[in-house]
Fold these 2 entries.
Entry 1:
Amino acid sequence: MQITELLKKENVHLNLAPMEKQGLLTEMTQDLAKSGAVVDQEVCLAEVLAREAQCTTGVGDGIAIPHCKSDAVNHTVVGAVTVPDGVEYDALDGKPVRLVFMILTPAGTDDDHVRVLARLSRLLLMPDLAERLCAATDADAFLQIIREGEEILMEEGKRLARRKAEEAAAAGEYTVLAVTACPTGIAHTYMAAQALEQTARNLGIALKVETNGAAGIHNTLNRREIASCKGIVVAADRAVDMDRFAGRPVICVPVSKAITDAEELLRQAESGNAPIYTLETDTDADTANVESWLKRLYRHLMSGISKILPLLMAAGVLGTLANFLPEAAGLPLYQLGMAANTMVLIVLSGYIAKAMAGETGLTVGLATGALSQMGASLLGWCMPGFVGSILAGFISGGVTRLVRRWCRKIPRSIASLKPMLPYPVLGIGIAGFLMLVLNIPATFVYGALYNGWQMLPVWAVCLLSMVLGSMMAADLGGPINKIAYMTAVLMLTAQQMDLMAAVIAAGMVPPLAMSLAIRMAPKRFTEQERLSARTNLLMGLCFISEAALPLANRAPRAVRPSFMVGAALAAGLSILWGCGSPVPHGGIFVVPLMQRPFAWLGALALGTIVSALMLVLCLKQLPEQNTEKAE
């Protein structure tokens, strides 16, 4: 609570003539009553005088701070006057008072009253500040002096808090812990971690962030840290290990919220007011809440998708390289690529089940996923494809959780056998039999999707790809973006490479367009945005759409449509010109592996140019002070 928020210009009166103490307090109370903060002026004045009778508020050095809490006050307010010739105030040092601040707060607001008194006292202790206030020529100058003093105090407070946080972190004593995880584990995971760490430094909060990225889990939280922290932030769009947080205050949010609302999350976690996480929170609570179920299904599915991306990458690269080599030399690469491709559907179902039921679920999911990969059913061979694999993952996870519930009453003396005997045997037996049945309808669904895609006319495929392309740019790594990307990845598991190329081009457009637009019209961008132009170029070339998030958040109405139009154009042209990508990621580095790479580069360039032109036209030119520093 800043003093300048409570002290208005109309309540600042300078160079008053000398008067008696009671007359001064009466005039100040009357003046504050005009602001609407005082309901009953007489009652309020009586309480101000009563407080003064207890002990003088003349603190010395020519300063007085009369104050009271009263039912006659409806909101906290501050008034200020200067009396150059001084007022006989019975101050503690016996000297006349020249600078007076009056603080009025509603009864029952002890915290506000103490905070305002403490802040004002600290402010007036700053060297020469009181003298400068007494010498101020008008209310604006008076308020500016206070504003500058408060800024200095805030910076000192931040430095002290940062130093304490650094000392606590060095000793392994963290106030707040965090976990970040996105489906691909490439951009959002680390951007969220960086946003939380930077904000924590500014707030003076000792923070440790665990990242669940594509390169594995880094900076793992240990039991002592979890037990001693005030709160935990889990910013994740896929499943993470939550059992370790049982009984602790936990805030669960999408990973994008940690990027956009890091301060809000950290303050809530630091306060200790987060909901207490229990083992039942993720399994039994809110069972009637459809949105909650959908979010969980989405997280579980994304957990599986994230694990198959490296396999698809290996299969695509090795298989494509094999085509460029003589048959004898390329055969080993082809076999390795086929081995990776064979594991895709098995791993997909396994990690969906693991997200739902832990390590036991992984075992069951891998086995039932193998049934989908083999095309096994009660009626003989079938082809359920990714539909069967996804279904196997969810069935395995659900069955495993049921089996674990059934086995709760097994005596402790033989409980150690549960992971080795009843869990895998019952889990694989029940889930496997269900999948031998369900693989049959899954084959019809997969066949309808696959054949339907093959039968679509070119214009319809282009239209669908443009929709998915615009989704890639709609929230830049958020749920909409991930749904579009997931669709392309699943089609890639069916060897449909055209949609993957379109989605990659669409996802690269926003950061590339932002970088180009900064070069075209730098005065429409902030200094920080202009400094990030090269970073956006590099991240765009690497297919990391999230680099354009800061601009999209600053001016969403102008920026997001511009990104979406350019991305849709790039995706549509990629399909129209027959481009295809055998790999799900890599950006510019995998262009040599693509079908019709030069046509794909042309689609990307046209989409980027259109998007950049729209940005230049839609964004307003910023004030000169925001642009001159970087030029």
Note: The chain has a mean pLDDT of 85.
Entry 2:
Amino acid sequence: MTEQVQNENHESFNKENSIYETWQSCNKNHPDLPAIEYFGNQWSFKQCEELIDIYARAFLLMLPDKKKSVTFCTPSLPSTFFAFYALNKIGVRANFVSHTILPSNPNEYIEETDTEILVLFDGFFKAVAPAIKKTKLKKIIIVSLSDGVKTIPDYVPDKIREYLLKTGTAKLIKIAMPFKKIMSLTKFESIGRKSNFEAKSVYNKGETAVVLYTGGSTGIPKGVEITNEATNHLIETYKTITSITPGDRNLVLIPPNHPTSFMISLLMPWRYGATQVIQPIYRKETFADDLINTKAQIVMAAPSHYAALLLKDFKAGDLRSLRSAFCGGEPVTKELAIAINNVLEKAGAERPWLGLGYGMSELGPTVFSATDETLSHLCNKVGSLIKGVEARIIDNDGNVLGNNEKGRLEVRTPYRMKGYYKQPELTAEFFNEDGFAKTGDIAICDENGYYDVIGRATDSITAVDGSTVYLFDIERVIYKDNAVWEAEVIGLTCNGKDVPVVHIVLNSEYRGNDNDVILRLHTLCKEHLSANEIPQGYKIREVFGTNPISAKRDYRALLEERNGYFVVDGNEVREVEF
């Protein structure tokens, strides 16, 4: 293979500290600044450090063997911050797993990770409890939305207000389902306050600090091992793509088990002294109001949430506080990116550009990002390589491709994972011998070094003639029609062969004219696509379902839908079932 890579000289930051120690060092000069804001309740950096120490002392008492670990199954909450940083301070590994994954294999996520303590959100209790009752867990610390809430702002909806006012949640669960291992957060904190243990900072170079379990949207869930060093170096590199200063308001929405949220919400802004405005109820229907009410300056959200902004009737100045709107996780069409940028500008955002990025849990998770100077015109491209990262695009035979040639993306980065937890074979399969990772994505790089990550290599089907049909190429044609608001092309097996079908959400003004739109789309596809690429079925739907953890589109659910499709027969449209 010819070795041609794009590269920048990488500076070694030599951050030989734990994540906690680096956070503490960076924020020691502003102890009274608000560090966390949660439904109007605030904790200063000094108060956070005190609570982290209390949590650390409690963990030391409850975890005599620091080789054991603590697993989190929670949304983003103040207690999640305190508990994670406390564990990192004393050198105990933390694991993050979603409530949708944990019940499927508690042996893998509890027993095999040597978990003795589970930090569990009360809202996930019913889903998780039956699966974990037979595990060797010693304690389950129940956390709630109401923890730490003393005052509630007027903008909070009545249903959430009612929930936040509830107390004794852990006690109610204990009565409803006897479980001797359960402990309330209040009890846990009291143990730490009474403990005489000294919570000294511990840093062990090269050891795993965190295991993040992937959401399983593109494959089986895997535990991604992350070290203190890789994390600290990547956070330092973020200085080149952000301009966070102490006191900036960062809106925290996505659960911490999501790798993007773990890095870009839980760690990076807090390292630089941002106020973490925690809003754990993450719904695209309320996203616009969340931005307005919290006066967020920085936010990271999924594409579907930004798309929902187009349905909001913003007034000039509604988003004047917003400075950096970041997005990642899914491809965004150029048309949608432009539309979102227009909304941000109309609403008065200081920097009215949607900042796209790309990465993987295994690689940081940031590989490409756009700088402020490029955001306004890149639109749907993910930007250029961040500092220290190398990339190449290859064909199926391993030959390095040139500019504007579509191929498989491979990446080499110093911020990479240590490996997949207890899966050395998968780790070896993911990395080439020269350290480049096989991302599994298809990408193009233009002559300016800007990358367009088009989709997954597996987002394809094999046609009858043996050729590969990339489903995202079909989507790009579908999006050329103004009637299409959202689209997803999938491959369904029909009569022993895989065929492309398309799911579509229409723009509001076109709803009710389904047959006309389908006829027009079919004509468009015949004009721009090969015979193998033309969709064999069209399905108009009201909305796309989303994964409750990643907030990405729930692709797998679409594969279960076999009816409600329409095909074009001459000039007529008729319904079929696959």
Note: Residues 102 and 109 are 6 Å apart (CA to CA).
